[in-house]
């Protein structure tokens, strides 16, 4: 459905919260989720019976801030402690830190701020061990505060922009949604910071993480009944693709080649596989699915793979086939898979011998799907033949200084 997460959350807010919108009223929706925080500014364009039409006052924006970052900070801290424990093999420490983060830590994270007298020190059991991970309340607070400060800056920049560009607009509310937005601690901090604006969120905490889903459903129901989505559908103003590798061929003449030590083959890197073209109207519920392969070292316990998303505003006929550094296409963000997956168990084991050397590696086939919507690109992935192993992705945005000068290019487009 062609809504950003922030827009979908606003649909949910407009229809389900105990608030009656008035025509001309303006507000900010902050959807603080798992991997990103989305902000959009909307104005009520029309209200008629059960139908509400909203108008965007600025392009929706997103930053890489969310509860996943809190997980990553705790996981790093847990890993440091695990590596000091006697009796825990170093190669298992990473897997244990990941397991504790995904299980016991979630209970303390989601409940933070709800119980004022929470113990200053919490202990989390290490599976199959008598050791425990120590987490202080102050450390957990610092993890939350690092995300909240960025959210404040994000919202403040949007408010400042509106004051400059649209001085005629008066903001009345901030609506908070999303998984991180359902945290009592985050809610209290937002209310305390924005004293001149009313901060609204669903009275039932379970509604906040589901705000996007419910908003999409409400928008679609309104579309069917009134032939009008809450946010009008727009066209894509750019082309989007991902960086990948191809086996080096004649068409790559003049480009640099890189030899993979595992399979011994030469590859042309930074090739662009375009997923969506400029001015194409994304089809509702339509995803683009393609197959890629990965060369995985069987000696590694876990593997993470990544790719960069590129953007270009050039006409179709002028789109570059590879990232040549001439400005035709720019790196937009990096998409990185979860490092807790043992990919080599899912592939086809292959061997290569040289004089005095023996290489053992695994070739894994991945299915990557891209859902392109209005100001939104959502990737899902799975290992072919292992439907119960969906890949979990994190996104690294240009707000991080290292993004613009680096590329990620692990996927191989042509499966040999």
Protein model, in words:
It contains seven helices and 19 strands. The chain is α+β, with helices and mostly antiparallel strands and 416 residues long. It has two domains: 1-233, Nucleotidyltransferase, domain 5; 239-396, no CATH class. The strands form four sheets. Strands 1, 2, 3, 4, 7 and 8 form a six-stranded mixed β-sheet that branches. A hairpin with a 2-residue loop joins strand 2 (37-48) and strand 3 (51-56). Helix 2 (67-82) runs antiparallel to helix 3 and helix 2 (67-82) runs antiparallel to helix 5 (137-165). The longest helix is centred in the middle third of the chain and has 29 residues, at 137-165. The protein starts with a helix and ends in a 20-residue tail after the last strand. This is Hsp70 protein.
